[in-house]
Every structure is written in C-alpha cells, then in structure tokens.
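Hello,

Following up on my earlier ticket. Below are the two sequence lines again, exactly as submitted.
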Amino acid sequence: MDSALGDQSLSGNAVDSTPETPPATRPAAIEARGLVKRFDGTLAVGGVDITVPEGAIYGILGPNGAGKTTTLRMLLGIIDPDEGTRKVLGTDRPYDIARQIGYLPEERGLYPSMKAYEAIAFMGALRGVPLKEGRKRGRELLEAHGLGHAAERQIRQLSKGMAQTVQLLGTLVHKPKLVVLDEPFSGLDAINQGKLENMIREMAAEGTTVIFSTHVIAHAERLCESIAIIAGGKVPFAGQVAEARDRIPAQVRLETREEGGAWRAALPDDARREGSFWNFSLPESGVEPLLRALIEGEAGILSLSIERAGLHDAFVAIAGEAAARELEADRQAELNT
Amino acid sequence: MNRNVTTPGRLSIWQAAFVIARRDFVAILFSRTFLFFLLGPLFPIVVGIAAGGIGQQVAAGVSDPVIGVAMEQADTEAMLAAREGLEQDLGTVLPPMEAISLPADGSPYDPQVQLAKSSGDLAAIITGTPTEPVLTATEDRAARWKGRVGLIAGTALAQGPPDFPNVATQTVATSGASEKRSRVTTAQIGQTLLFLLTMLLAGMVLSNLVEEKANKIIEILAAAIPMDAVFLGKLFAMLGVSMVGISVWGGSAAILLAFNPITAPLPEPAVGWPLFVTFGIIYFAMGYLLIGSVFLAIGSMAATVREVQTMSMPVTMLQLINFFFASYAMAHQNTAAEYAAIAFPLSSPFAMLARAAQQPEIWPHLAALTWQTIWVAIFIRLGAGLFRRRVMKSGPQGVKQRRWWQRKKPATQVAPSN
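Thanks for your patience. The regenerated structure is below:
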C-alpha cells in the first residue's frame, strides 16, 4: 500500500468546502445552457444546463456512459457543442483561457519514460509555466504531498496511485482558477480516495473552483455543495445537495402498541408493515397532523423516527426516473421509425 | 502557495508546438528508436552488397556462349584466325569460337543434332565454307550473329584482316547527351534518397502518435493547447531528429570519403552542388511535412496499432505510386506529366528536386516551395480537424438516428374484407 496522496497534503480533515456566501449570489465560474452533442448521429448529450458558482466544489453525478465526460469536454472546449452555449470564467471560448484551467481526464496518461517531476513540469509547460519553474514547482509539489522520494523516478516505476497523484499535481502546477476532474477517484484505494477528498477541500479553501464527475455518490455527498445529475445525456436535476435530498420525502418509522383502531386511517397509502414497525413517507402536511391523528386514534405510540433521504436515494430516484423516461422515448422513437 | 496566481490566455500555436517538439525531440533522441533510425540506411547498403556479391558469383559460374566451326580443317583455321585478327579492333563484340571436328569416317555432319544433344556452352555452329557459310542457331542468336559471322568469313576469305584506316581520337569532358544522361542519374539518386527518408520518418511520426494515444496523454494535450500545435510539434520534432540523423550520416560519409575518395563522382546537377544540396534539404523537409501530416491524420483516426497498420498500408502503396509518378515526370521534363507532378502536392518535392538536377532556373523552385507550404498548412489543419471530430468522443449514447433506408415503413392499415 503506497501513500500516494501523502499525509503532508492534509491541511485538516474538516476544511469547510462551502464558502460563506450562498451559491446563488456568487458569480458563476461555469454557465452552460442547452449543450447538445451528437457523434455520427448518435446523441451523446441532449441539452445540459449547469451553473457552477465560483469557489464551489461541484459534482457531476451520473451512471456510466451518461454523458459526463462529453459534458466536461464541451465545457473545456476540447470538443465544441452542436447546440447550446457555455461560459467558463467569463468567456465563451474556454480554450482561450487554458492557463486558468486544470484538467484531469478520466483516462490517466503520462509518458512512461519521464521522471515524476519532469512530468509535472511538462504539464505546466503546456499551460505556460516555464520549464525551469515547472521543474522547481514539480519537486515542491511532490515533496509537499509525500512523494519527494519519487521525484527522480520514471513514471513506469511508480505505482498506479502514485502515478495518478503525479498527474493530479500536474493538473495543479500552473495554479489554476478552475480545476476539472473527470472521475478522479476511480482506481484509487479507500485511503487514497480520502486523501484526494482532502486535496479537493484544500483547493476549494484556497478559492479554486473544483468540478468533478463521479458515479460514486458518497464522494459528492461528502464534498459538494451543489451537484448536477446527468442521466441519458440530460440533466434531470441541478442544484444544492439538500434540494436533491428534498426531492424524496423523508421516511417515517412508527411502532405502536395497538394493532388496529381508528388511528390506522391516519397512515398514508404507501404505509407497509415490517415486523412490529410501520414504514411510510412523511406526508406533505408534515409530522404534526400525523401525530395528532395517531394520538387521537389511540395508537399507543412506542416509537416514531423520521429519516431524511440520503443523496444516494435521491440519485437513484432521479436517475431512475430519467432512465425510465429515456426508455419510453427510445420505445416511441423505435415505433416512429 | 497561492494557487490563484494565473496568467490569462493560453500558449500561442507556435509556443505550444515548441513545447511538444521539445519533449518529442528529447524523448526520441534518447530512445532505441533513434538508434534504429541511424542504422536504417545501413540495411539497404548491406543487402545491396550481399546481393551484388551473390550476383557476381552466379555470373562467374556461367561462361559465355560459344560458336562452333565445323568446316574443312583449312577453312576452320582460316575462320578462327580471322576472328582473332578482328578481335584486336572490335573487342568483345565477337563471340568466342572453337573448332569442331567433323566425323572421321566422312559420314554427313548434322549441326542440329549436335546442338540438340550439346550440354556445354555451344550455342551455334557454322558449317559450309567461308564462301557460303551456314549458321545454325536459335532464331535470336542467328539474327544477332549473322552479320558478325559474315564479317569473319569475309576476313577469312581475304586471307588476313582488312586494312582498317587508323582513326585519331580527341576526348572531351562531356557532351550534351552525356550531361543529360548524367543529370538524370543525379536526379534519380536524389529522388530515391528523398523518398526513402520521408517514408522512414513518416512511419516514425505515426508510431510516435500511436504511442501517445496508447499512453492516453493526448487528451491532456487537447485540453491545454490547440490540436494544430500538437500536430506541428510532432512533425517538427521528427524533422529535427531527422536533421540530426542526416548530420550523422553526412559526417560518416565525409569521413569515409576522406579515406576512400571515389574516382567517378556524381555528375554536377544543373543548379550546382551547393544549391542542389540546399534544395534537397528544403524539399526533404517539405516532402516529409506533407507525407507526415497525412500519416498523422491517419494515426489520429485510428484507435489501435492494428487499425493504424491497416489504414497506412494503402497510403504507403499510394505513396509508392506517387514516387513512380515523380520518377516518370523526371524523365519527361517540360511536359504535362512533369507539370502535373509539380502541381500535385505529395509528388511536388520529388519532381522539383529532379528538376533542380536537370534545369538551371531558380524561380520555379521559389514558386513550388510557396505552393508546398500552403499545402503543408492545409494538410495539418485537415489532420487536426479530423482528430477533433474522430477521436475526442466517449461512448455512444441514446437512440441513434436511423438513415432513411434503415427506417421501417409505417404500418399500413388494411381494410377488412367483407
């Protein structure tokens, strides 16, 4: 087990990723409207709207093949959208501000024969950092992230986690304002994933806007203030994590002394019995009218708990609905052709 | 460290190309590939020497065909003496001759039977007399030797060699005909060298790009700098590598020549050696940039090494046709074929180098270089455009729009029959 994302990167586990100013009032680092991309007639992204506030950690969530990578590539100007507009750090030509952006692609790539510090310097040189300065920064970054001993090693001699860290440091060497990470956690073990989460928090704490894609919801739940869920090339949800959770009603778990009685009429339609418990969604009217009805109906409440939905549940529900709509649209398209 | 100190904008296309070229140049120069590149020209030389040696041995094992003389003894001796006398003036034009003994019992002699059963070098037989010689041989040899046998028989009849007048000789360094022929040789050598070098380099630049795709670094490059710059950088890095190679080869050749000066140097090209070498280097650069950009475009479209090999094979074949076209144009100066070869971008450098060997005018070269530069820019732009469209996409999603011929016809309602 290597300590690729070295301990020295940790500036504290509890870096608050949410800037004090609410997202809605901060200027947008990224603003995309109706992005559409087709490849050879195949719709890859079918109308994506995203607004990422400055200084935010923003997650793009979606199942594999949902269009996350294509969306990020369009935002960065690697490919142009067929339709729609994008504005990144105030310009609609993101490729013209490449020096202000750091990008870690999903498919990691480095020259195997390059030394670690040279690889970072090369990535800096691509973004305008003079080679000499890049080499110096490369050594400093490696040292700061616990990889100083590997600075002179060739990439092919590094473990996967170490190589991935080198590439991430290469993404940061030119001190970008916006960092875009495509599936940054894939291929990392749990410890290195935790260290990477801390690195992301650290970046945000220093004012960098971080946008990353993932299909592992837990990372987004821990890191992000706002997310966009992409499914089938569309964005069924974009907003704050709390809003996504609120899409799913809270779940009530009730235990009563009485088996039957007038109180049963107060339970909503989706109530189901599991052992001695009743499980159901919290009614829109709230918990107070429900409690009143249970008490008046002499249910004999032994316990009642309200559990708020997690992001994972919200994601599954939102992406699932979108997938169902997509399937229906496909079926209709099949019928029409 | 404050991360937010950034410089706006991005590298210009030339700055970015320099970053790529610098990386590739250093990486290739210190790789095994470069060693093979340096040793590359040795292989055809070694194969050539080996093939030449084997050919010489084969030729040595086969002796010249001989004409037999089957006449009365006196006539045979006269014929052989006449041949010997003529040989002093005509040299190897006359085939070797040997006497054939006639049957001692006076039975009739049939040369056809002897030729049919002969397993040696006997290729023809002269019978009859010097006054009426009869040559028996295969049709082509009979046609070739008929006049020579007549000359020998005539000389034999005159009982000695004819009294040829003495021809005084004056020698000149060159003539119009020999100069033209020699310059064609120079042009041929120049063209062939140019072709071999460009193919070698184009292949190398292609494998370099494939390696880059295998390393998956191409997306990092695409996100940071213009794709045109990646293409330019790769092309110029390989050009730089080739210049190092040429310097090494040139230096080695110069050292070899210093110790073993060649007695028959190549004929001087029409524009003179210094300008010809300069044009050679420039046309090599242009030819390589044109072909290299085509190969790079192919490489950008292919996802695997196998795909690259499949796609580059027809291009290599087309390149050979292109070379033959330029060679044909070389032998047909100032014709429509030559002008077409000059105008077609891929054959233009080859055709123009051949022209430099044969025609002294300079201005067509300036015009051709401008023309080729325009095409280099077009090829690189097209290659970069293809790359953007074909490579930078992730897996397909959603419903693929069907072409009109793929669509099912709408179900037609059939009226119920009563």
